UniProtKB/TrEMBL annotation:
Keyword Ribonucleoprotein attributed: no
Protein name, entry field: Electron transfer flavoprotein subunit beta
SUPFAM superfamilies: Adenine nucleotide alpha hydrolases-like
CDD domains: ETF_beta
Top-rank lineage group of the source organism: Bacteria
Organism name: Caldimicrobium thiodismutans
C-alpha cells in the first residue's frame, strides 16, 4: 500500500509582517511551519502505516525553505520525501499548484491514497485537494475525520452539518483531512539526523514534463483585483477611574442606549 501526503509550509503567525503600502504579506521575512492540518495528515498517515505496513511518501511544492518541513515529515513517518521546486512555479494560484501536485502524484503511481489537509492556514481556499483529485481523475472526499481500509475499499468518516457521514470508495482517492486528534507522535530525533545527511529529491517543471505556460503566474486564472485592510467602525473606549464612578457611567450609557429602563 502506498500513501502520498501533500504538505504545505505556512508562515508562523508571530513572524509575519504586513507591507504597510501594499497590505500584502512579506513572506520572505516569515518563518515557515507545517500547515496544522497537514501535521494531522502526517499523524493519520503514521497510524495507517503502522496498521497496514504502508509506504508513506511526503511531497511539497515550494521554495527550498520548505526542506526542513519535509525532513520533519520524514522524522514523523515518511519513507521518502520529494520537494517540487522550480522558479516557474512561483505565483501559482490553486489550479497551477494542483497541476504540479497532480503531475508529481501521477509519477508516483501506483498509489492507494493521497492525504492532504482540509485547508491551509494562509491561503485557506480548501480548493487544492479536490482540484488535484479532478486533475488525476480520481474521487475526492473532503472534510474527513478518520479513514480505514476494509475489504480493499476505503471507508471515510466525513463530518457534515447534519452529523457523521460514512463513505466507501475504491482506491485510489484524495482525502482532505480535518481530524480532531488528541495525540501527535513526536518527531524521531534519530530519523531527523538520518535524513539531514541524505540527498533530497527535487523535481523541477522539466522532471514533471509540465509546459511552462500552465504553471506559476502565467498558468493561474485567479487575479487579485485589490487588497485592503479591514477597518473597524467602532474602535471601543477605555474608561479609567474608581469602580463606583465607572459603574454609574456604565448604567447611564446603558440607559441612553435603551438596554436598561430609566
Ligand atoms: C486570490 C489568491 C491569489 C493568490 N496569489 C498568489 C500569488 O500571487 N503568489 C503566490 O505565491 N501565491 C498566491 N496565492 C496563494 C496560492 O494560491 C496558494 O498558496 C496555493 O495555491 C495553495 O492554496 P491554499 O493555500 O488555499 O491551499 P488549500 O487548498 O487551502 O490547502 C489544502 C491542502 O492542500 C495541500 N497543499 C496546498 N498547497 C500545497 C503546496 N504548495 N504543496 C503541497 N501541498 C499543498 C495541503 O495538503 C493543504 O493542507 C494566492 C491565493 C489566492 C486565494
Amino acid at each position: 500500500m502506498r500513501i502520498i501526503v501533500s504538505i504545505k509550509g505556512v508562515p508562523k503567525l508571530e513572524t509575519v509582517k504586513v507591507d504597510p503600502e501594499t497590505h500584502t504579506l512579506r513572506r520572505e521575512s516569515a518563518e515557515l511551519m507545517l500547515n496544522p492540518f497537514d501535521r494531522s495528515a502526517l499523524e493519520i498517515a503514521a497510524r495507517l502505516k503502522e496498521k497496514y505496513h504502508a509506504e508513506v511518501i511526503a511531497i511539497s511544492m515550494g521554495p527550498p525553505n520548505v526542506i526542513p518541513l519535509l525532513r520533519e515529515a520524514y522524522s514523523i513517518c515518511a519513507d521518502r520525501i520529494i520537494l517540487l521546486s522550480d522558479r516557474a512555479f512561483a505565483g501559482a494560484d490553486t489550479l497551477a499548484t494542483s497541476r504540479v501536485l497532480a503531475q508529481a502524484i501521477k509519477k508516483l503511481a501506483p498509489f492507494d491514497l493521497v492525504l492532504m489537509g482540509l485547508k491551509s492556514a494562509d491561503g485557506e481556499t480548501a480548493q487544492v485537494p479536490p482540484e488535484t483529485a479532478a486533475l488525476l481523475g480520481i474521487p475526492s472526499i473532503t472534510n474527513v475525520k478518520d479513514l480505514f481500509f476494509e475489504d480493499k475499499k476505503i471507508i471515510a468518516l466525513r463530518e457534515t452539518e447534519y452529523g457523521l457521514e460514512e463513505l466507501e470508495a475504491e482506491p485510489p482517492i484524495v482525502a482532505s483531512l480535518y481530524p480532531k486528534l488528541d495525540y501527535f507522535r513526536p518527531p524521531s530525533f534519530k530519523r531527523l539526523l538520518e535524513v539531514k545527511n541524505r540527498e533530497l529529491e527535487i523535481w523541477s517543471a522539466k522532471d514533471l514534463e509540465l509546459s511552462i505556460e500552465k504553471l506559476g503566474l502565467s498558468g493561474s486564472p485567479t487575479r487579485v483585483s485589490g487588497v485592503f485592510e479591514k477597518k473597524f467602525a467602532d474602535k471601543g473606549e477605555i474608561w479609567e477611574g474608581e469602580p463606583e464612578e465607572l459603574a454609574k457611567r456604565l448604567i447611564t450609557l446603558l440607559k441612553e442606549k435603551g438596554f436598561l429602563k430609566a
